Amino acid sequence: MKVEMEDVDDSTLCDSVSSLVEGCRLPVHMKGTSDWPLAEIVSIKDLDGLKVYYVHYVDFNKRLDEWVTEQSLDTRKVHFPRKDAAPGTGVSTPKKVQIGSGISNSGQVSRPASPVSTNSELLNGNAVLAAALQKKINRSVILNRKRKGPSLEGEDSQDGPPSQQSAATGGPRQSGSMVSHHDDIVTRMKNIEMIEIGPHRVRPWYFAPYPQEMVHLACIYICEFCLKYRKSRKCLERHLIKCNLRHPPGNEIYRKDNISFFEIDGRKNKVYAQNLCLLAKLFLDHKTLYYDTDPFLFYVMTVFDHRGFHIVGYFSKEKESTEDYNVACILTLPPYQRKGYGKLLIEFSYELSKFEGKTGSPEKPLSDLGLLSYRSYWAQTILEILLSAKPIGENEKAQITINEICELTSIKKEDVISTLQNLNLINYYKGQYIITLSKEIIQQHYKAMETRQIRIDSKALHWTPKDWGKRAKW
Length: 474
Ligand code: ACO
Ligand code: ZN
Known about the structure:
The chain is of the alpha+beta class. The chain has helices at residues 119-137, 181-188, 233-242, 270-281, 341-356, 368-388, 402-409, 413-422, 439-451; strands at residues 11-12, 25-27, 38-47, 50-57, 66-69, 78-79, 195-197, 200-202, 220-222, 229-230, 251-256, 259-265, 296-305, 308-318, 325-327, 330-332, 361-362, 426-429, 432-435.
């Protein structure tokens, strides 16, 4: 009988952890839960005679990856890596959404956190909610794309991102296609333990190419106004005496109540823009813009108090986009997540597109949380328009075209159509497409809008779009 290699079960009873190697897959106890999902060993290291394992939970987002000890490994059924496969290359499943952001407002680390309020509910809720959210995402496979920015020479490595020397490895940086297997493993692992920014302590989610001397410290200290980073609190204190910024650089183009937006040119404020990208990379898995910030504008959202304008989040935007992207990267810093600021950033990005008289769309691929936020924003914005549409005559139904929805919202046509389809609103009736809004949908919408308290007020935006195409160089 001929046996295909693919059909052979490569799981082996492994009585000793000593035979475990990078690339092995086995059930691992996920911290803070009672679950033992399948995980892949990304790296193994010896810590004062104790072996520790960096694991990636195969069906979960990388931000849940963690170091575990032997006790967390179930070695009864280990899948050893196939000889022809590099570790990590077999992972192609859609990722589940991590519930919660990993940090509480008080600055205490709470990972993985849960939208439910009590700790006891946190245990199993995590996996259950992750599965539910995965359904919500509708099996969208989020593809990882790697884009390497061109190098930056002559930067002050203390105050900006590391230059040609690879921050990850300490060795020379390699081109995108030539990234060695070792570099690949390094960039798959979180390298910063903790950051302190303003009053917040935040545990990062992903790798970021901070310089080698910043990596593996217990904490790095970031100035919340200029975003420069320091090795210790003492060093940051010394910096703060000299640093007189109390808001991001650039122009304040929006102010309403305590919310402001600053527009920063990636060419004019390069070090700030690069430090912002570095900070953002700690929470963004799939975007790799750290060096060449010239072609981008950065819109930083702040909340104001007596101490200054504190960064809450930002989005970047290409000065010129051939693909009609109106957002490149978007981030709400974890202490501020799940409070509606993400939608406010998105709303602002579309407000800019309205001022430009264009439709726009976020750059792809979207992350899991990005997709959730955009889907929710698109659904609410389109439903608002549909519900405000007035019938032309008596006993007539309201009529609106897809193009009109695009014009009113600046949402790109394909996103409008996919949203209407996702909401299951489009029906084909007597030879034409009609949109039917059920009572249930309308009720759900009004309820959701009650919780969306902060909104963008276009009257508070003082901005004229620039035609970057006309300029020879940014
Ligand atoms: N679990 C489940 N749902 C979540 C979570 C979560 N952890 N976080 C946000 N959501 C949902 C919210 O419930 C809300 O939907 P709803 O109103 O229908 O309930 C929606 O997402 C938006 O919530 P906000 O509070 O407005 O958004 P937030 O301030 O949390 O910011 C963002 C969203 C920017 C995506 C944030 O999660 C983030 O910064 N993530 C890390 C970086 C990232 O992934 N950015 C997007 C990459 S794609 C791109 O850059 C184009
Ligand atoms: Zn500073």
